[in-house]
Specification:
- InterPro entries: AFP_Neu5c_C_sf, Aldolase_TIM, PseI-like, PseI/NeuA/B-like_N, Pseudaminic_synth_PseI, SAF, SAF_AFP_Neu5Ac, SAF_PseI/NeuA/NeuB.
- This protein has 11 helices and 13 strands.
- α6 runs parallel beside α7.
- 30% of the residues lie in helices and 16% in strands.
- The longest helix is centred in the C-terminal third of the chain and has 18 residues.
- The mean pLDDT is 97.
- It has 2 domains: 228 residues, Aldolase class I (TIM Barrel, Alpha-Beta Barrel), CATH 3.20.20.70; 64 residues, Antifreeze-like/N-acetylneuraminic acid synthase C-terminal domain (Type Iii Antifreeze Protein Isoform Hplc 12), CATH 3.90.1210.
- β3, α1 and β4 form a beta-alpha-beta unit.
- With 350 residues, the chain is an alpha/beta fold.
């Protein structure tokens, strides 16, 4: 499986996890705040900032009743119509360039999720280096074709999608000629619970679709993301805000700056720890070998004395014979005087 490269950053098992800070609607309709989010993402060590490109009119209809109204008592957005929710959350299109420019200035990769074909055309005018496909659009085959045709890497969230739907999505992209696909294991609840995240799917998904796989994570904290990296995730996406206390459509399940820093550090540690299948002492461990237990004479002995449990023990350090020879050596006769603290060796015995 070949690495995928986005703006010079390689993504794959031989590279540290690619960390995406999802801004979404956490700018709270302030460009100044949006730019501050970019600054904090850079300070935290993220690789990329991701936007969402849509308008309320490209997402839905301006209707405030029936299926267009959110009345689910468990929803973070209860009491909003879909249209009003997207009005609150959308990132004005004229903000994209200054946000992209700020990312470039700070060494961050910036890309976006287009929600319809007009958004793809707009993002192409900004020369985005990659595209994200949201879970709710992963079965929108015309949109998949449009994005795939750009020839740029596609990072696809898999929330709610069946294996058959994902197969159709992946095949569609490949048939268009785009094999730069990264699938993100996603649970489309906000926030998501760890027990409903099923990250064991990650290695299975990699094997099934023969592509890079990561995690789009809506759980609280960084534990699920770290575990995902241990299972082979090469990309982690988390919503990011300056402070959950500031409110906003996504703030409840977004990381704050200190948490994003922890995510960057801990996922890299998890990746480093994967290493390779290895037994025996590593180079670094070899210096510790001397502190293993080994056999020592623990009382002064005269030539001709018999080795017993009282005068030979397995203790630290490790310069004597291995403890596995203990029973073999009991009853042996020493051929010379031996001081307490002498490591046991074969040449001590008759």
């Amino acid at each position: 499986m070949k690495d995928i490269t986005i703006s010079g950053r390689k993504i794959g098992k031989n590279h540290k996890p690619f960390i995406i800070a999802e801004m979404s609607g956490n700018h709270n309709q302030s460009l100044e705040r949006a730019l501050k989010i970019v600054e904090e993402a850079a300070k935290a060590g993220a690789d990329a900032v991701k936007l969402q490109t849509y308008t309320a009119d490209t997402m839905t209809l301006d209707i405030s009743e029936g299926e267009f109204y959110i009345d689910d008592k468990n929803s973070l957005w209860k009491g909003n119509s879909l249209y009003k929710l997207y009005q609150q959350a959308y990132t004005p299109w004229e903000w994209h360039k200054p946000i992209f420019d700020k990312c470039k200035e700070l060494g961050l990769i910036c890309f976006s999720t287009p929600f319809d074909e007009s958004a793809v055309d707009f993002l192409e005018s900004l020369d985005v280096p990659a595209y994200k496909v949201a879970s709710f659009e992963n079965a929108d085959i015309p949109l998949i074709k449009k994005i795939a045709a750009t020839g740029k890497p596609m990072i696809i969230s898999t929330g709610m999608a069946t294996v058959a739907e994902l197969d159709e999505t992946v095949r569609t992209a490949r048939e268009v000629g785009n094999d730069q696909i990264i699938l993100l294991k996603t649970t489309s609840t906000y926030p998501a619970s760890p027990e409903n995240t099923n990250i064991s799917t990650i290695p299975h998904m990699r094997e099934l679709f023969q592509c890079e796989v990561g995690l789009s994570d809506h759980t609280m904290g960084v534990g699920v993301a770290v575990a995902a990296v241990a299972l082979g995730a090469t990309v982690v996406e988390k919503h990011f805000t300056l402070s959950r206390a500031d409110g906003g459509v996504d703030s409840t399940f977004s990381l704050e700056p200190a948490e994003l820093t922890a995510l960057v550090i801990e996922t890299e540690r998890a990746w480093q720890a994967l290493g390779k299948v290895s037994y025996g002492p590593t180079e670094k461990e070899k210096v510790s070998m001397k502190y293993r237990r080994s056999l020592y004479i623990v009382k002064d002995m005269k030539a001709g004395e018999i080795v017993t449990k009282e005068n030979m023990r397995a203790i630290r350090p490790g310069y004597g014979l291995a403890p596995k020879y203990y029973d073999v050596l009991l009853g042996k006769i020493v051929k010379k005087d031996i001081k307490m603290g002498t490591p046991v060796s074969w040449d001590l015995f008759v």
